[in-house]
Write a structure and sequence with these properties.
7% helix, two-stranded antiparallel sheet, 10-stranded mixed β-sheet, mainly beta
């Protein structure tokens, strides 16, 4: 998860770092990791002991407190909204696959209608719209409620899926 700091997707709100630099064990608190019995769900209550200085970027200019939810071998960023429930779930773990088959590392363009392999895929993709959120990224909504997301430079979307997410409106 610390690699995502470089992408600007996850940041820690505590900036009191020692002179030896930032990172785990160097002034920024270790993230809360919660072992989960199932995949994190939107609207689920935060853990009873939830208190975190860790923040995750859930959209342009919006940082929410978060923890890492671990289900099996997959780590998820789980953001908690003002109401104390899960407002955003994301992963950049290449082991996770959305029900539609989208995974981190897949070509982003493969999710678009013109790249459908058969008529059924084309029908599914025909309603797919690329959403561009300046300052955050490009994403495509999947039928399962997951979104496949990538970087954005200017108006251009990146080539590979960098993370998958669900977000409350």
């Amino acid at each position: 998860m610390w690699a995502r700091v470089a992408l600007g997707l996850t940041v820690a709100s505590t900036l009191a770092c020692s002179s030896s630099g930032a990172g785990p064990g160097r002034g920024i608190p270790e993230p809360l990791i919660v072992e989960m019995a199932s995949e994190p769900q939107l609207g689920a209550p935060a853990p009873a002991d939830f208190a975190s200085s860790r923040r995750v970027l859930v959209g342009p200019s919006q940082l929410d407190p978060s923890y890492i939810g671990r289900f099996g071998d997959v780590d998820f960023d789980v953001a908690v909204g003002n109401d104390g429930t899960t407002s955003y779930v994301a992963t950049d773990d290449p082991d996770f696959e959305a029900p539609e088959g989208a995974r981190v590392g897949n070509p982003f363009s493969a999710l678009l209608p013109e790249h459908a392999e058969d008529a059924a895929d084309a029908e599914h993709a025909a309603g797919t719209e690329v959403v561009r959120e300046p300052g955050w990224g490009c994403h495509i909504a999947l039928d399962s409620g997951w979104h496949a997301a990538t970087s954005m430079e200017g108006h251009a979307c990146g080539e590979k899926v960098l993370w998958l997410f669900k977000r409350r409106n």
